[in-house]
Amino acid sequence: MSDGTVIVIGGAEDKIRDRIILNRFVGLAGGEDAIVCVISTASSLGHEAGQRYRAIFAELGVRTVRPLHAMTRAQANDETFARAVRDATGIFLTGGNQLRLSSTLGGTRLAEAVLERFRHGAVIAGTSAGASAMSSHMIAFGASGATPKHRMAAIAAGLGVLPGVIVDQHFQQRNRLGRLLSLIAQNPSLLGLGVDEDTAGVVGPDQVLEVIGRGSVTVVDGAAAETDAWEVKGHRPVMISGVVLHSLPAGYRFDLRRRHRVAQPNLKALPGGEAAASS
Question: Which of 25, 136, 153, 238 has the highest CB neighbour number within 10 Å of its CB?
């Protein structure tokens, strides 16, 4: 089996109207035949967060939805939690605190079971904190602002579903360009993905990201950049020069492996569909 699909959602996805992002997740998971597990470990709302998504996915036609609220590492290592995801076709990680998510699940049976399902073709989606935790290198916390500065953000290990990138969410709404630039200055081998609210990047087994939703995904490529990040002290501004930046609205696609935009957008995903493209 090939790897499944990853959906990184910038948070605040539409849950009431068109529900473009949640509908895409359900479709990839198998529609009404999907088996969806909702992991709400990141959320301070606890079981309530899981039950909310259970109701939403039921409205979208999914017959089997299992909320899992593993709050401790002991629970995340419990065989019953791991078994609950072993036949899942879709796994959804809620928002909340990504450090709580990674420090509770990292290296546990439940995390391994999630990765195993992904390797067998399941779709794994995360919103807000859940999106941050998808990558191997995860933004644990940090400051806002457009100017990159030293010590602007801290990195922790994520779940590793989407290696080679670092994901930031609520991107435009919380003014997070600076911290993503500062992290790419320090880690130029990684590709920075800044995802706006009610926006998602859908990454298939071919490692091509397609943007869906209301906003944009900002891609920060520092492979050819120069920086003085290694010698800056305290919280002073960091020089980074030669970054390649892409801002991609719905319908546009980006090859994460080759680090370039795919020339032909998906016209049906553009606002207004094919009519908008031809007008």
Answer: 25
